[in-house]
Amino acid sequence: MTSSPSLTESQLRAALLGLAVGDALGVPVEFESRARRRLDPVVTMRGYGTHWQPPGTWSDDASLTFCLAEAIADGFTVGKLAENCCRWYYQNFWTPHGSIFDIGITTREAIMRLKADADLIFAGATDEYSNGNGALMRILPLAFYQVDAPLETRFQLIQDVSAVTHGHIRSAVACFLYLEVARHLRAGLAPQPAYAAVCQAAPEQLRQLAVPPAEIGKFEVVLSGRLDTLPEASLASGGYVLHTLESALWCLLRHSSYAETVLAAVNLGDDTDTTGAVAGGLAGLYYGEAAIPPEWRSALARRADIEDLAARVAAATV
After folding, report:
1. Does residue 196 carry a pLDDT above 70?
2. What angle do CA 97, 46, 132 make, to 5 degrees?
3. CA neighbor of 277 nearest in space, from 251, 311, 257, 255
């Protein structure tokens, strides 16, 4: 007789599956405009399209999330994460079908630097223009690691994990705010109270962490407490980390099921797989695995491997 999964394992499974399904929903329509999505909205799992991949295929978003999860399962060090990122890019580690078909420019350049210098770990560019969403899209496993550590310790870990590919403070702050929402969802709060709690606490937390005031100001929209009141037309859904965070949280706050949340994210257009993944991870965590439509779960590439990974991470974080 097998034992039931722990709460941590159940939450991990739901988060990882939710992220991967959101990613896979967006892959076939990546780079297509919002106007195009209005004419032809995504309503279920598709295949082929932009990258000519079969239904249920996730992209670099989920791959690099799984690389971080593997590092945690293996006894986390940042060096192990960096190694896994290189294994993914150069050896097809944690790819859905054995090959890479999508990668962001900033992430690719960082991984190439990692490969060229065996002693390099923090390879992410630090200029303001290197604030794509490539760290945010893979950060969710940290919601299950060192969750009771002091604020400064947790933020330093986030900075380190982000800086493997994205070294600017803005990416780290976006990851921190996302993980704070996830932390409250894990504790049982619904999306609206979780978001409100982050908006209340984060400004002082960021000042305590010595984040420059100008950088804190960049998150004014997210931390306004009114993100969900914005009209869709005010949202951008390209590859900029701030825009992805805003759009993903907006979808989570505006909808009341896993399916509604991820479909709304994908149908914003442009960087559809990443917005779907970032929103889908939180929605999976909150609504649970059973809320992910079974036909989407059954179509998902390497589903059994993802579930096994969740179990191994849960065992490593007890």
Report:
1. yes
2. 70
3. 251
Model confidence at 234: pLDDT above 90: yes
Q: How confident is the model over 92-104, as a mean pLDDT?
A: 97
CB 274 within 8 A of CB 61: yes
